[in-house]
Amino acid sequence: MGTDGRDWPAEFLAADMVSLGDGLPGLASSSRAWLALPQSCTGRDEFTGPTVVDIGMGPTGLDLSSDYEQEDRAALTRAVVEATNGVIRDFGCSGTYRVPRALPAPVERKKTDADAFCGIKGFTLPEAHRKDLARTRVGGDGGPARVCEAGGSYNPAVRLTTVTDPALSEIFSSGTLRTGLPLKGSKGSGSIDGTRAVYRAKCQTGPVAFVVEQLDHTEHSVAGLAHELLPGYVAAEAERIGCGPEKVTLPTV
């Protein structure tokens, strides 16, 4: 994975994914699944993400009926656990992962709560964007990354990602330096351009990455949602995960 903070997350950190639970460092949906290898087995270079086994089946983000989604997701979960255990053996390491006993319910789109956008208390969605971001889906709760996508009925216009796993957050380390203008904050730093903002803060559990990406234009914003949403997102999300208070200062243009 290295420091691929764009292509890999676009496929494997999405709002239709759920935590594998049972202490497994990974996520799964009906079309994608990944699981990180134990760092005690693989080691990890500084400023790079974990070594993962990932599996893809068909187009990412494909919406299925609940029954098919659960069946495909369960099959991908078994496959990624078995594949990861095979890699662990090939590396000559001991120990194996167990297939999780049960996965959370499929992640559904819901009507946006503008006063707690993305399900985050204290994060208010600006009035101008409430029509464009009327539907929200939040996945990954309790796992290494929590992902919120919001937009119209199907296609998301914006994705907000919080990566609480310290090793996984490293894939965004280069993004804090290369994405555009610098961001400064209470306990972190980052960068922002017209459609993407990456901010990493030092929390009690280690580094946490906050990422806001505009995936499509809206009626009120061809670009600029990252600029509008990031400060409120980081402040409210940091409080939710016990990392606050956190304040981001946007660059002056």
Description of the structure:
The strands form two sheets. The chain has a nine-stranded antiparallel beta sheet. A hairpin with a 6-residue loop joins strand 1 and strand 2. The protein is built from six helices and 13 strands. The longest helix has 25 residues. With 253 residues, it is α+β, with helices and mostly antiparallel strands.
Put the structure in a nutshell.
With 253 residues, the chain is α+β, with helices and mostly antiparallel strands. The chain has six helices and 13 strands. The mean pLDDT is 90.
Which residues form runs of ≥5 with pLDDT under 50? none
**Biggest sheet: strand arrangement:** 5-6-7-8-12-11-10-9-13
Oligomeric state of shown chains:
single chain
Report on the biggest sheet. Answer: 9 strands, antiparallel
The structural class is alpha+beta
Mean pLDDT: 90
> Per the principal axes of the C-alpha atoms, what is the gross shape?
globular
**Overall radius of gyration:** 18 Å
Helical amount among residues, as a percent range? 10-25%
- Proportion of β residues? 25-35%
Which H/E pattern describes the elements? HEEEHEHEEEEHHEEEEHE
DSSP E strands, number: 13
Number of helices: 6
Distance separating the two termini: 33 Å
